[in-house]
From TrEMBL:
It holds the Pfam family AIM24. This is Uncharacterized protein (AIM24 family). The lineage of its organism: Bacteria, Bacillati, Actinomycetota, Actinomycetes, Kitasatosporales. InterPro entries: AIM24 (IPR002838), AIM24_sf (IPR036983), Trp_RNA-bd_attenuator-like_dom (IPR016031).
C-alpha cells in the first residue's frame, strides 16, 4: 500500500510556495517570514506553526475591505510545511519579484506578510453599481497564491488598441497598471453572465495580464457597497 501511495507524497521543497497537485498549496514556513492566509484554508502542517486570526495589521486595513466587515485572513508563523486549499479550487502561485497584482478578495488564498497590500476601489466602475468594485492590491518582493474555480486563462492584453472584456464574476486578478472601464450591454444580456437585468463587462487595455476563471463567482461583484 505504501508504494501505491508514494506518488502522492510531497516533493522536496524548492521554493517558498509551490503547488501540490492542482488544488493544494505548499508553503515552506520559516521563523520571521510570516504568511497571511485565508481563514479556514489550512488542511495540514508539519513542524511548529501558529495561527492568529484577524491580526492587528489586517484589522487596520479591513476598515476599507468590501462591506467593512473585515478581511477573512489569519497570520501564520513558525517553522515547517503548511498546506492550504480552498474547497478544491485550483491554486495559482505567483512570485511577484517586485511587481504588483490586483486580486479579487474571494480569490486570494495566501501571501507573504511583508508584502505591501491594501484595499483599493477600482476606478471607472462607480457609475455602474453604487460605489463600484473593490480589489486587493499586493506589491513587492514575495509570493502570492490565488484560487480559481477551474483552470484559469491568463490573457495578455498586449498593449494594443483592442480592449479585453471580462465578466466581473469570472475575474480573478489583473495587472494594476491596466486601464479599466465598465461596459453595459443590452443586446447580449441573455448571453453574458448569469445575472438578471443588464449585463456588465470590465474592459482592460494597456500592458499587462488578466486572469479569468471558467466559473463565475456566486457573489455579485457589482452590488452596491455603502
Amino acid at each position: 500500500m505504501n508504494q501505491q501511495l508514494a506518488g502522492f507524497a510531497p516533493a522536496p521543497v524548492a521554493a517558498r510556495m509551490e503547488n501540490h497537485g492542482n488544488h493544494m498549496l505548499k508553503v515552506a514556513m520559516q521563523t520571521g517570514n510570516d504568511l497571511l492566509a485565508r481563514v479556514g484554508s489550512m488542511v495540514a502542517y508539519e513542524g511548529f506553526v501558529q495561527y492568529e486570526p484577524n491580526p492587528p495589521a489586517v484589522r487596520q486595513i479591513a476598515k476599507d475591505w468590501m462591506t467593512g466587515e473585515g478581511a477573512p485572513l489569519m497570520k501564520c508563523s513558525g517553522d515547517g510545511l503548511l498546506y492550504l486549499s480552498d474547497y478544491g479550487a485550483n491554486v495559482v502561485v505567483i512570485n511577484l519579484n517586485g511587481d504588483a497584482i490586483s486580486v479579487n478578495a474571494t480569490n486570494l488564498l495566501a501571501f507573504d506578510a511583508h508584502l505591501t497590500w491594501g484595499v483599493e476601489r477600482v476606478k471607472g466602475l462607480a457609475k455602474f453599481a453604487g460605489q463600484g468594485l473593490w480589489n486587493t492590491k499586493i506589491s513587492g518582493q514575495g509570493w502570492v497564491a490565488l484560487t480559481s474555480r477551474g483552470k484559469p486563462i491568463v490573457v495578455d492584453c498586449g498593449g494594443g488598441e483592442d480592449e479585453t472584456y471580462v465578466d466581473p464574476d469570472a475575474l480573478v486578478a489583473w495587472s494594476p497598471n491596466l486601464k479599466v472601464k465598465g461596459k453595459r450591454s443590452f443586446k447580449a444580456q441573455s448571453l453574458i453572465g448569469r445575472g438578471s437585468g443588464e449585463a456588465f463587462q470590465m474592459a482592460f487595455s494597456g500592458q499587462g495580464i488578466v486572469v479569468v476563471q471558467p466559473s463565475e463567482d456566486s457573489t455579485d461583484r457589482l452590488r452596491v457597497r455603502g
